Amino acid sequence: DGAEDRANELLARLAFDPRWAGEPFRRLVRNVLAAVPEATGEKLFARARALAEREPGGAAWVAETAAARQNPETPALFDALASAPRATPDDWLRKARFVSKGNPAAGAAVLAEAKGKLPALSFARLVAVYADSAAGSTFAPTAAAPDEARALAEARLAVKLSRGQPAEAAKLLESYLAEPATKGASAEWARRNLAMLYAAGGTQADRDRAMELLKDAEVRPDAPVEDLRATAAVLATLARFLEGRDRRAVLSKAVAALEAVHKKTTAPSDLFTVAQLYRAAGDRAAGRKALQQLLNRKPEELAADPQYALYLTTALEELVEDGNFQSAAAFAGKLAQMRATDFRSLATIARYEAKAGRPERALAVAEDYARLADANGGDYLARAAQVAELLDELSRLPNVRGTTAARAISSAAAERFAALVPNRPDAIVGLAGVLAADGRAAEAIARAERLPKLPARLKATTAVTIGRGADLTAPEAAQLLKWIDDGLAEEPNAPDLLMHRGEFLARRGDLPAACAAFEKVLARDERNVVALNNLAWLMSANPATAEKALELVARATRESGMTGELLDTRARVQITLKQFDKAERDLADAISYDPTPLRWFHVALLRLGQEKPAEAAKAFTEAQRRGLEARTVHPTDAPTFTKLSAK
To answer: What is the pTM of this model?
Structure first.
């Protein structure tokens, strides 16, 4: 009796100890029950049950534990769970699963009982989860009305997608669409989602099926705002998996849906999203028109709009990207008059000044923001890091790099990063990057070496950052590679460290070893989009591996959708395979995402392949204007870079 009393006391102490109460206590008891004799387990369960039933979720644990122990009270416990005043869908699901063992019809009967006792959406989710479980493998969900059928289809689709079953999700939607009662908005919903599943398949056949579904889809302006927003969101997501004309067509439908929303709400935020979608679709003129409409409102409306600075900043960014500095001046002036203090606005002004040929003013703008940070201790570290990163970026701009102003800006960035290192050791990465880009790789290495107890992982990141920004001597490269390998010695399969190694070796021209590093990442995570793209890029210039590179790009696309990076990589592969028409389309789309120097260099390669040397020279000039450096091109393309540079 004394032992039982002590056991009861110990259980009570654990149950009410904040460190053990709830799930930890129940998990402990469950583990002990599995390890003790039957008779002892019955006593322990009885004691723990009395304590657990008082807690939220405890009754469910008691019922499931009783079922596992084949306790004769189990049916009554599950009945009590489902009949409780606040019974949840999970409680009904537990009962249905229990009673269905050996009698599938009993599970269906429990669901029928639950239908009148749960909200419609909760019941639909219950049915969807049960139907997708082992207990419900023979259960065929039915709906009495179109609204119920739509709710059930939505719930079952969510379950399939949450469990990574896109093929099963597609079959579900195909069946739903085949039902005669599936019409109107419900049919449109099913077609949009089925099209997205098809498009995510990654092949041209998949994309063709998606567009076939959408060709007759209509945006109904009279639809509720919520439906129109959902339509726009689905179409915008779907566009990520499409290309060229198909992508633009889907984005046009998304724009139409959001324009209908804006007519109903007149909300500036909706019009701003319309502008962004136009830009994504490649219709920059329409996007700017929508943006200008936002900026042309009455002064009092603009003053009251908390997003006014964002609209000005977006307009300024677009004008700077186009090199239209004359028009950009007015927007920069308005932002300055507003005394905008958010970092994005000030950084955009600084970039405008630097790209317009006034880097000294850009430095002043950044330093003003830094002084504001110095005066507010609470956000000093975050603001100082932002300023340092911005200054680093400005010092590397094509029209700034190599000038007296560049040295002043990079020195200011280095000072900022160095001041952060004592409180944020990871700032050594930024410091080393600034110094390396300024031609001071040896100093960058020495600064990192002097830091005491710098973690091997951080040192490896520092190494790859230095390698990105500097032309290294052989001893420097060997030392930096050792830093990366030291990190891998501590974490042999760390994906980020393996990718650091792959990138570093690729820049050194050791393509086989670089490929091996990325392949090791993919051996552990075959869905790693960055590793897939990087490996495809390394294989892109070799005719023997070009087809494999295309497969890697297709795999990456299935995971993330089509991005500018993937389009650019695929275009480089297509140039190798002499598929010039395809490469031209991909490069046009990639540049519409972001006109990077490397993408323009690939246009130059394309024109050379097409035997258009004058156009190649023009594209190369554009790449240089945007900041192309020899170290960023594929090692195989280095001779072409040198040849074009000499002209």
So the answer is: 0.75
